[in-house]
Amino acid sequence: MLAISRPLLSPSSAEMVLLFARHLSLADGSKLLAIAEVPVNLLTTVLVQGADISQLEATIERSNGYLLASVPPQESLSGLALSPVMSPQSQFAVQTMPSRIQNRPALVASRPMLYNDLLITVSIPMDTALEEWTFQARLIGMLSLLFSFLIAAAGYAGLRYVESMGRAQRSISHAKATTDQALESMESGFLLLDAERKVITWNRRYLEIYPWQAPHIRVGHSFEALLMITAVETLGDVPRETLQQWVTTRMELLQHGVHNHEREFPNGRIIEITERPTPGGGVVITYQDVTRLRRASAEIEQLAFFDPLTSLPNRRLLSDRLQQALMTSVRSGRRGALLFMDLDHFKTLNDTAGHDVGDMLLQQVAVRIKACVREGDTVARLGGDEFVVMLLDLSPETMEAARQARLVGDNILRAMAEPFELGDKQHRSSCSLGATLFGDTAQDAAELLKQADIAMYQVKNNGRNAFCFFDPGMLTAIEARARLEVDLRKSLDDQHFELYYQQQVNEEGQVVGAEALVRWHHLDNGLVLPGQFIGLAEETGLILPMGQWVLEQACTQLAMWQRQPRSRDLQLSVNVSARQFRQADFVDRVARILRATGARADLLKLELTESLVLDNVEDTIQKMNALKTLGVRFSMDDFGTGHSSLSYLTRLPLDQLKIDQSFVRNIGSQSTDSIIIQTIIGMGNNLGLEVLAEGVETEAQRDFLSAHGCHLKQGFLFGPPLPAPEFIKALHAEEISL
Predict the structure, then answer these.
(1) Which residues 6+ apart lie within 8 Å of 330 measured at CB?
(2) Residue among 422, 419, 412 at smallest CA distance from 465
(3) Do the Cβ atoms of 419 and 428 come closer than 8 Å?
């Protein structure tokens, strides 16, 4: 048996050694003790030989735990028992336990040596042993974590992709539903074809337009076959070749890019068809029902260019046609004529019978005029009762063209003279026709209309119901009248008017009154008499401000005369126009003027004409009675020239009858006028009215009037109209002479 000592200090080498002893038996049976000294360092070297592990601990120890050698060397522990004591193992064993030297958690491997009493142990700390595993574990963990993250990310991405695909699918479905809904709600029909001209889709409106296709249409159906169905349905009983030709033509149109055309069906519907190519070579076709639009356009055109009452061309269309006719006439050398027609007394019919009856007359007039002209001529209505006839292709010779135009004009006059049937009544009418020729030189359409209009008004002025050609002298007269109107307006603003006064005398020759007569001091033409501008003032409405001014000036003068002994009892006559008297507030105007001027109402005499009185008898009587309550007196001017009714005359609150100067002028030359004068004088005396004769210029006229009972006279025999200052001088001179 081998005995091993604890580590001892060698006296010879002064280093730690182990002593190994063993009994030996010799051949002779004697026993020897063999002792071997082994340096501990040598054992340590043996322990660490080939070992290169960090934190490695290796020991050689006895089975009872005594440490013999160690790595790293532990001199302090040499010869001491290590705890815990390793259990002798017959073979290699590994345990988890404290390391043999540093007592740290470790993996401890032990193995008995050649001699069972010796053990060799190796300890590796757990953290060192597991360092590589930890690193690898961490690496694997990180890789696993990264892989898990990637898997999660991929899963999330996949989920998002799936959701995105779901949303896209829903969006596509929604878009398709919306598109389908939009297509179904379209007012237009819709048809989509592929590159092979096969049906892809269509909407409800398409089948409403082409209901006969409903049993046949389907996805993939040939468009050419659908066209053939439509051709059979809409073209009627025609040869097969005609149907095929129509279909072929329609198919060829699909090759020409964007194409737009209209189709009118036998039932009157008009469909606008628009064909557009798609990027894939297909075609999208829209079908718009434009029936109402086209009808509305036709109605708009009718309203824009035709008169709604008579269906004749209106002014706009006439101007266009006339402009074209002017150019054509100049090129061809043939003349044309323009006739301007106006119905006579149409306003009277409208006012008395009503506008419905007037419209009925205008419609019949339009028919009659059209019957008097050729197919290529134009009859237009400008408005109201004005019609224009444009005659084309007349003779190149002026006189012959004029004869042809007059022939048409005479036919129209005769046609208008025939009675019209207006409801259950007959009506006779006439017209005034003015005409002008065109075609010899370039002319303006508006100027031609103006010329024909001027000629027509010349007919009106000459008594109506006639035909007249335009004469340049007419235009000169109208232009002069227009200038006169401008001057008249300006003179009213600048007050270039003055009142003259003409004496009215009694049987003894005493001045008992005067008539106020207006005079115009024209800047260029000097003194202008009323006969030259009163008619113009009536037509233009200037008679209203003029009449107001005359009445104000007359009452102002009357108030001034009242302050002078010789003139304070003079009566002053003032002419009142019909338009002035018909003003709704005429009575109030007169009352205000009388109050403002202080003139005596009983010295103011308003002269009214017969036509004014009879125009509206009830209104006339009402206003006259209202003014009579103020004290105003009335005279009927120009009596005997109208058509007075004796019954009306007895109802009017008149004070005086005035014999017109046209009768007085013919005293002694025309017996009928003398009889009329006697009748008027007798009528006035019987009614208790004063009778005054105007225009007395001779002694014979004065004597005749006096002899038959007319005691009030006015005329140049007694004095001309004079301005107010000269009238007063003449009045004083007459007083002195008396």
Answers:
(1) 439, 441, 442
(2) 412
(3) yes
Q: Which residues of 95-129 are buried (b: 16+ CB within 10 A; e: fewer)?
A: eeebbbbeeeebbbebebeeeebbbbbbbbbeebb
DSSP helix, strand, coil percent of the chain (3-state; round to 5): 45, 25, 30
Run of H or E residues at 180? helix 131-185
| 144-181 per-position pLDDT tens digit | 777 778 778 777 877 887 787 777 777 767 766 666 66
Say if residues 465 and 431 touch (Cβ distance below 8 Å): yes
- Strands, E assignment, 204-307: 259-264, 270-277, 283-289
334, 326 contact by CB (below 8 A)? no
- What confidence tens digit (pLDDT) does each residue in 526-574 have? 888 888 888 888 888 889 999 999 999 999 999 999 998 889 999 999 9
Nearest CA to 659 out of 594, 610, 727 is that of 610
What residues contact 217, with CB distance under 8 A and at least 6 apart?
Answer: 199, 202, 207, 226
β-bridge partners, 381: 387
Closest CA to 316 of 392, 388, 370: 388
* Greater pLDDT, 163 or 421: 421
**Beta-carbon neighbour count of residue 215 at 10 Å?**
8
- The predicted model scores a pTM of 0.49
CA distance 702 to 580: 33
The pLDDT tens digits for 354-412 are 889 999 999 999 999 999 999 889 999 998 999 999 999 999 998 999 999 999 999 99
Read off the DSSP letter of residue 217. Answer: -
404, 337 in Cβ contact below 8 A?
yes
Task: Provide the token pair at 319.
Answer: 């101007």
β partners of residue 503: 514
| CB-CB neighbours of 674 under 10 Å | 17
Rounded Cα distance between 430 and 417, Å, is 6
- Residue 490 to residue 277: CA distance in whole angstroms: 72
Q: What are the structure tokens assigned to 690, written together?
A: 């004063």
Among the listed residues 711, 708, 717, the one whose alpha carbon sits nearest the alpha carbon of residue 674: 708
- From residue 477, alpha-carbon distances to 42, 469, 483, 484, 529 in Å are 161, 15, 10, 10, 18
The conformational region for residue 509 under phi > 0 = left, psi -120 to 50 = alpha, else beta, is: left
The DSSP symbol for 441 reads: S
Looking at the DSSP bridge assignments, the partners of residue 498 are 519
Question: Taking the alpha carbons of 698, 701, 707, 712 in that order, is the dihedral positive or negative?
Answer: negative
Buried b / exposed e along 347-369 (16+ C-beta atoms within 10 A): eebbeebeeebbebbbebbbebb
